[in-house]
Structure formats: C-alpha cells, structure tokens
Design goal:
The complex is a heterodimer of chains A (about 150) and B (about 500). Chain A has about 150 residues and is an all-alpha fold. Chain A has one domain (about 5-155). Chain A is built from four helices and no strands. Chain B has a two-stranded antiparallel ribbon. Chain B is mainly alpha-helical. The mean pLDDT of chain B is about 90. Chain B is built from 18 helices and two strands. Chain B is globular and about 70 Å long. Classes of the chains: A mainly alpha (about 150), B mainly alpha (about 500). The interface between A and B is medium-sized, with 23 and 21 residues.
Chain lengths: ~150, ~500
C-alpha cells in the first residue's frame, strides 16, 4: 500500500524539516536561558518525523535505532545526575557550574544570554532532547505502522 | 572525591534500579545473557544499598537526604525548602526491605519462568522501573515527588500486567488497572494542589509543621486516604486487584502485590508522620478499622467461591491487607490516650510486622502457585491434581507459605497475627473474633488448594520446573523461616525502629 502524498507536499516537507530541526536544536541549547528546553525542543524535532510520515506515507524500519537512542539518552541523563555524587556532593548537584570548560562559564548578576553557562543543566537538556526525539518518533512510527496494517486488512 | 556510600545509600536504592532499567534495553541489543546479567546485577546492587541503608539507620539513626544540595545531609534551610528530600529512617528501611526481598525472589524466578517469552528486554526494563517507583514512593518525603513515583509505578506495572497481550483477559485487567491508577493519580495531584495552595510547601516536614486542620485539609486528607486505600486493594475499592493479580505474568504477581503494600506504607507514613497533628486521630483510626474489617471479611468470603487458583490467592491477599489496616487503625485510634501504651503500641507492632511478613509469604505463595501453573498449564483447581508427584520442592514451599498466611503456630504469620489478636482484643473483642474466624477460613482455603493441586492420583505433566524458580522460592522460604524462628528479634530490631520512625514510639 502506498500513502504517498503529491510531489509538492513531499518536496516542501523535505525542505521544511531543516528549519524545524534547527529550531528544535535552538530550543534545546538555549534551555537554560530562555523558555524551552530538552523536552520542548525534542518534541519540535519529533514533529519533523511526523511531517515526513504524513508526506511519505511511511518511513523505513529504523525502530531499533530510535530505541537505542532513547535508552542512551536516559542512561546519560542518569550518569550526569550521578556525577554529582561522584564529585562528592549529592545526586543532581550541579558540579560543573562555574568550573570552566564546556558550559562551565561564570556570569555575575543577571545572565544576558551567554550560552556557555549552566554546568550540567544544558548537558541534561541535550540528553533529554535526544531521548524525547527518539521516544516521540518511536510512538509516531508505531502509530503510523498500525494504521497502515488496518488499511491493508480492509 | 570521597563518596560516602552509607550517607548516599537511600538515593542509590532509587537510582540503581532506574539506571539499570535504562541499561537493560541496550544490553538486550548485544545478547540475552548480557541482558540477564545486567538485570541481576541491578537487583543485587539494589539489595546491597538497601542493606547499607539499613545498617546506617540502625547504627547511626535517621537522616534526611536533600537532592541537589552541596552535601546531602545539610537539611532543609530557608533557601532550599523547595528541594526534593528523601527520608531514611526505620520505617523507610522496613518498607525497602519488604520490597527488595520480594523483588529479588520475583526477579530470579522470572529467569526460568519467562525463558520462552519474547520482548523480555522491555519486561526487565518495566520490572526495574516498577521497583524504582515503589522504592521512590516509600522513601520520598515530598508530596509532589510522591505523585511522580506513584505514576511511574502505575504505568510500569500496567505494562507488566498487559504483558501477555495475546490474551484478552490480560488486556482487560490492565485497562481496569490503568483506569483506576489514572483516577487515583489525578485525585492525588488534586489533593496535593490543596496543600500547596494553602501552605505553599510540599515537603512532609514543612506541611506537618504548618498544618492547621481546616476544612480544605480534611477534604484533601480524605482524598489521599481513599486513593492509597484503593491502590492497596482494600475493600470496597478492591475490584481491580483479583483481575490484575491473576492475569499478570506469574513472576509479576507478587510484584503487583508489593505495589499495593507500598501504597499502604505511604498511607501509614502520611497519616502518622504528616497528618497526625491536624486530624481527629480516633476518627481516622476508626475508618481504618472499618476498612480493615471489611477487607478481611469480604476478601476471604469472595475467595471461598473461586475455583481459579490465582484469583483465590488474590482474594486471600485482599483479606491480609485488612489485618494490617485494622491493627494500625487500632494504634491510630488509641493514639494520645493511655490505652496506646497498654495495647495500641502492640497493635502497631503487630500490624507493621504483619506487613513485612505478608510481603514475603504472599510472594512465596504466588510464586509457588506460578510453579503449578507453569507445570500443569491450567489455573482451574478442578482440573489440577497429583502435582506432588512431580514437584516435591514446590509442594514444600507452598506448605510453608500457606501455613504462614493461615497463621499456624511455628510460622511467621502466626507471630504477627498473635500480636494483632492480643492487642485488638483489648480494644474491642469483636474485632479479634472476626480476625480469628478469617484466619480459620484462610486455613480451609489453603487446604482446598493443597488437596486439589498437589494430592490425588498422578495425572502426568509435560514440563519440569527450572532451577532458577526453585532458587527464588528457596530464598523466600529461608526468609519466612528466619522470621518464624526469630520473631522477637525482628520485632525489636526492625519493627520497633519503624514505629519510632513514624514518631509514635511507645
């Protein structure tokens, strides 16, 4: 069965996923500065998957990649939380804030928008983004597949 | 860089199952053996950290673990009152021990029992998530955090109940469980909103200190009680339990029972630790007693007419929940009066001792029933028979579990039930008589299962019980026997610190 939409829709969808993914990455990376964050950005990126599924009818079977990505994101989130304990503090303690290096910059007073701050918070946003992209895409994929199967049965 | 594992132990009790739940699907992509190894390591590490926490609580006393603080033991300050906290005290240890013993049994059991099923990567993930959820529920001392773990437990165990999704009954049971859980979860959130709106705090300690006992408080407390009693499968909110218990995969059944027990632990924690100062304890105690007596009596009467093995044990489990609610209800009702020192504290001891006892012997009973189902491939008591010829070990384990649930003297169920009878008799003799009658009927029902399933002519069976199932049941049997041999020690070393943790030590 083929649920492909017209060539116009497919071409526009192919082009549109680029700004959608870029906007999603922007939301994820600025999670500690502006409204948004890992979950919201991840959901935005997953909407690109939804667009592709609608336009192309179905996607190729990459369920395994998505579930690996999901578990990896969750595991890394937890390892970041455990970092607080490993450094000698408590779980979820922000042990990277203000220590230099990536996301370790310091600001005095109100942060005017320096992205290189926040310690573990932006890192956690990134791994949560990874997890949400994978999980929502997996759900969309399963739903698309199931409706596909029902159509065939009729 | 020095990590104090003892102080950090409560958070590891939660973190290890969570971490390994996420590692299991990754390991599953490599090989089956690695996945099983990861799962087993997760369980064993959790056990280790529960023991570390128990050791620290019993030697050094209780402490509050603050998440995200520079040092976990700094306590709550005016700047950090919003932080999530865990409470490590005798009561948390009692709950965590009950949970981990059952989880260990159920986990090892599932290696053999689920060997031929597929989708096991997700099965073990959900198993560890449920474990993390229940551990979080009993350890947390923050109302919103409680809601989060409540939902984690509900969703994960719902997936486990629906595991055999080729059978309509399993899906129906899971749907029922999901509807109940979602309603309970939303009502819990609603009542937490009441507290937050009124006091602007969520921490148990801060709510306890600021609680005034206004009408809104009473409404919220009522809702919390109904929700947790519902999840604990107390009559009249027990309708989901027999379906969920009997349709879940056999290794999971004791685990669903332990989520019920976990809810009961949370209910007692909230009533004694948080709400005690603001409510009429005698009224709340009487409500618990009424719910308890109803659960005991209706549970066991419904069990009488069952011919399905697992449904019968599920109803027995509902009736056992009644004992704990009644005993702790008597403790709560006499709180603050002179009677508490005379028999109220004994009733509390009996009730809490019965909780850890019940968690273990009920798991043993469910697992040996699972062995029967595994070998004979039917749950219908009228079709079973002659299994003692094929499974001598399981027969023995079933006798230990069955006699313990019926409260027959040398076994652990007797010790806790005797404490309950003696103390409840002084409160009101009728309660003790009902409890005794229920015990006798329970014994009759255990006899019915025993005669139907194990005795009689050999009918021949196809399968042999795998060794890991025997191992799991022997672990639980050893715990039951230890509790039976040293009831005084258990009460003095585990149950009394738990009562002190609730702040009502005699």
């Amino acid at each position: 069965m083929n649920f492909k939409m017209s060539v116009v829709v497919r071409t526009v969808a192919d082009i549109m996923i680029i700004p959608i993914i870029v906007f999603g990455i922007y939301l994820i990376l600025h999670g500690h500065l502006t409204p948004g964050g890992g979950f919201q950005g991840g959901a935005v990126i997953a909407s690109a998957t939804a667009l592709l599924i609608v336009a192309w009818g179905t996607l190729k079977d990459n369920k395994d990649d998505f579930s690996t990505m999901e578990s990896t994101g969750l595991t890394m989130f937890f390892l970041l939380a455990l970092l607080g304990i490993i450094m000698g503090f408590s779980l979820f303690y922000n042990s990277l804030a203000g220590t230099g290096g990536i996301f370790g910059g310091t600001v005095s007073g109100i942060n005017p928008g320096y992205i290189n701050t926040g310690g573990t918070v932006p890192l956690m946003n990134i791994v949560v983004g990874l997890e949400v992209v994978a999980a929502l895409s997996l759900i969309l994929y399963m739903m698309a597949k199931r409706s596909d199967a029902l159509e065939v049965e009729e | 860089m020095n990590v104090d594992l003892l102080t950090q132990s409560p958070v590891f009790v939660l973190a290890i199952p969570l971490l390994f739940a996420f590692l299991t699907p990754l390991a599953n992509k490599v090989s089956k053996e690695l996945r099983n190894a990861v799962f087993l390591i997760g369980l064993l590490l959790t056990t280790l950290f529960v023991s570390l926490m128990a050791y620290e609580v019993y030697t050094m006393g209780s402490w509050i673990y603050v998440f995200g603080a520079e040092q976990p033991t700094t306590g709550l300050t005016t700047q950090s009152f919003f932080r999530i906290t865990f409470l490590a005290d005798g009561f948390s240890v009692l709950a965590a021990l009950t949970i981990i013993i059952t989880a260990l049994g159920a986990g090892i059991y599932s290696f053999g029992h689920m060997k031929e099923s597929n989708g096991l990567g997700k099965f073990y993930t959900l198993f560890l998530l449920t474990l993390a959820g229940v551990n979080g529920m009993v350890l947390t001392s923050d109302l919103f955090n409680l809601f989060v773990w409540f939902e984690v437990t509900s969703i994960a165990s719902c997936g486990l109940i629906a595991y055999h999704n080729d059978r309509g009954e399993s899906v129906e049971a899971a749907l029922k469980y999901m509807i109940i859980s979602v309603i309970a979860g939303l009502l819990l959130l609603f009542s937490i909103g009441f507290f937050y709106g009124e006091y602007g705090v969520l921490n148990y300690f801060l709510i306890r200190d600021s609680m005034t006992g206004s009408l809104i408080d009473i409404l919220a407390i009522g809702m919390v009680m109904v929700i947790l009693a519902m999840k604990a499968s107390s009559v009249p909110m027990h309708m989901w339990a027999p379906d969920a218990y009997s349709e879940a995969p056999e290794p999971i059944t004791p685990f669903i029972a332990i989520t019920s027990l976990g809810s009961l632990f949370v209910l007692f924690r909230l009533l004694f630790f948080v709400f005690r100062g603001a409510v009429e304890t005698s009224a709340i105690g009487s409500i618990l007693i009424i719910l308890g007596v109803l659960s005991m009596f209706i549970g066991v009467s419904m069990a009488l007419k069952q011919s399905d093995l697992k449904r019968l044990i599920a109803y027995l489990s509902v009736s056992q929940i009644g004992y704990m609610m009644m005993a702790v209800g008597v403790g709560l009702a006499t709180l603050g009066t002179g009677d508490y020192g005379i028999f109220g504290a004994r009733a509390m001891e009996g009730g809490l001792f019965h909780m850890i006892n019940d968690g273990v012997y009920k798991a043993l009973l469910f697992l040996s029933a699972g062995g029967i189902v595994y070998v004979a491939d039917t749950r219908d008591l009228n079709k079973l028979g002659g299994l003692a010829h094929h499974m001598p070990y399981t027969t023995f384990f079933f006798i230990i579990g069955g006699l313990s649930i019926a409260g027959i003297p040398p076994l652990s169920g007797f010790s806790s039930k005797l404490l309950i009878y003696k103390s409840v008799y002084l409160y009101n003799p009728v309660l003790a008589i009902i409890a005794l009658v229920v015990s006798i009927v329970t014994l009759a029902l255990i006899g019915k299962i025993f005669f139907n399933a194990f005795l009689g002519p050999d009918q021949g069976v196809g399968k042999k019980i795998p060794r890991s199932m025997i191992l799991a049941m022997s672990i639980l049997t050893i715990v039951v026997v230890l509790f039976s041999l040293f009831p005084n020690y258990v009460v003095a070393e585990i149950v009394v610190p738990a009562i002190e943790g609730l702040g009502v030590g005699a």
